[in-house]
Amino acid sequence: MGLFITFEGIEGCGKTTQINLLAEFLSESNFPFITTREPGGSSIGKRIRGILLDTENKEITSKAELLLYAADRTQHVETVISPALKEGKTILCDRFYDATTAYQGKGRGLDRKLIEDLNEIASGGLKPDLTFLIDCPVEIGIERAVKRSNSESPEEMRFEKEALTFHQKVRAGYMEIAEAEQHRIVIINGNRQVEKVHEEIVKIFLDKTNDNKESIKGKQA
Ligand code: TMP
Question: Which residues, judged by CB distance below 6 Å to any ligand atom, belong to the binding site of ligand 1?
Answer without folding.
Answer: 11, 37-39, 53, 69, 94-95, 99-100, 103-104, 159
